[in-house]
Design brief:
Blueprint lengths: L26 H5 L7 H7 L6 E5 L3 E7 L8 E6 L3 E8 L18 E8 L10 E5 L2 E7 L17
Antiparallel strand pairs: 1-2, 2-7, 3-4, 4-5, 6-7
Length: 158
Amino acid sequence: MSIIPSFFGSRRTNVFDPFSLDIWDHPFFNTSFSSVIPAGVRETLAFANAQIDWKETPEAHVFKADLPGLKKEEVKVELQEDKILQISGERTREKEEKNDKWHRVERSSGKFLRRFMLPENAKVDEVKAQMENGVLTVTVPKKEVKKPEVKAIDISAN
């Protein structure tokens, strides 16, 4: 669920996700415009909307982004207002030499920016990010939910 609409491929989303910042997460917006964007442009711009998975475990919220070819220095992970996780970066296009003759360009380049509204149970002071083999993993631990204290009451007989 990003602030940028997805015209470039399918995403596992829930239109009614209360943590989504994306007003474009509607089936109309996800499919209607993809037919008017030429295939070559879709391939080139696909990186502009990086695909990110968000799963919740009992201990944390885990975000995983496939960013092949990027170094950790080319990616930024930021928290805004202690509630919005922002993942951004840029892959620059390979420098073209004068004598080079390109037959096909399929690897995408460009900037990407994704934002996620973190739920109330997120420990924003303990966020960790790790980049390994082109996969960025951001782990946001969850606050422990205190279980209500149950006090047993003895029942007396009359």
